Amino acid sequence: xxxxxxxxxxxxxxxxxxxxxxxxxxxxxxxxxxxxxxxxxxxxxxxxxxxxxxxxxxxxxxxxxxxxxxxxxxxxxxxxxxxxxxxxxxxxxxxxxxxxxxxxxxxxxxxxxxxxxxxxxxxxxxxxxxxxxxxxxxxxxxxxxxxxxxxxxxxxxxxxxxxxxxxxxxxxxxx
Length: 175
Description:
Layout (H helix, E strand, L loop, with lengths): L1 H13 L11 H21 L4 H7 L5 H12 L8 H20 L3 H9 L12 H5 L4 H15 L8 H5 L12
Helix pairs in contact: 2-4, 2-5, 5-8
């Protein structure tokens, strides 16, 4: 028992490699910044976000800073974003991926993102309102909700769920 406890303490103390502080080093942030920002801009285009919404998602940098970042990213020039901006971009990538998993139809995914919801976590607002609220917490709330839905936790039924008719091995359709 003592051996197991010691192993657990060592594992917890060391933590997983992905949580290593080296992820904050400028070289790692520089490596991720250009591709991450280009991916964000592509998703923002798909979501039809205006410039103000894009800036809010990224933590509301000055317009000149935002345009400087986007120009450098599009021209494949070196760019180093801070950890907060990269975390926000990561949340957007996760939201986009989860929507692709949960909804076969991109229009249905956009309808979910833009539509009002009864889920208390959204307070009757569209999830996109949280995404574009300017807070990292809003982004991560939507991301966590979608990750939970992907994991099988409750999410209101969508069109595919409503049209589903189960059958058994005998071919009998249940009504």
